Amino acid sequence: MEGIIIMLTKKIEAALNDQLNFELYSAYIYMAMQAHLRFQGLNGFANWMQIQAQEESVHAMGFYNFIIDRGGKVVLKAIAQPKTEWKSVLAVFENTLEHECIVTSRINNIAALAESEKDFATRNFMQWYIGEQVEEESNANGIINDLKLAANSKETLLMLDRERAQRVFAFPLIPGGMKAPGAAAP
Ligand code: OFO
User: Fold this and answer.
1) Distance between CA atoms of 110 and 14, rounded to whole angstroms?
2) With a 6 A CB cut-off, is 128 part of the ligand 1 pocket?
3) 100 Cβ below 6 A of ligand 1
4) What pTM did the predictor assign?
5) CA-CA distance, 128 to 66, in Å (whole number)?
6) I need a labelling partner for 162 at 20 to 30 A (CA). Which of 14, 34, 118, 171 fits?
7) Which positions ≥6 away from 125 have C-beta within 8 Å?
8) Separation of 24 CA from ligand 1 center, angstroms?
9) 107-116, 131-140, 177-186: which range is least confident on average?
10) How far is the CA of 1 from the centre of ligand 1 (A)?
11) Contacts of 145 (CB under 8 A, 6+ apart)
């Protein structure tokens, strides 16, 4: 059996390619939110979104590399156009949370599919994303709570904006999905 890769089923390969596209779509959404926030002069929140978009690109590459490692074919599809306007900063982050909940249910569906197909390598790979989604939802929720507490206070909004300027990019190390230059193997 040496040298033989246990191939992905067509069903799993399609689901992983769809999620690769959805992660790129996530990056695109957060880039659109970043552009909107920059336009409003909220550079701290925009910084938070820029890092969010960078993380999503790495999440996408995780799927990309995993598909290849399992002997599958990566198929890139068109990325849907994101929204360009939101009525408030709160609306931006409510939209973020809403989007992350959709991502969570998609990730769970792939994990469930992998279990039903007895593809335990894919099931294991999805575990990192399951954990990541807990963090993604909690981060968005935390910012929503802060923004609700700020209510209509411009001073508090500016303070929250400055806080978000502190966020720095940390390369997400996805077990089984990392081939990016400079990324240490986990
Ligand atoms: Fe990829 O975690 Fe957000 O979408």
Assistant:
1) 10
2) no
3) yes
4) 0.92
5) 13
6) 171
7) 66, 175, 176, 177
8) 9
9) 177-186
10) 36
11) none
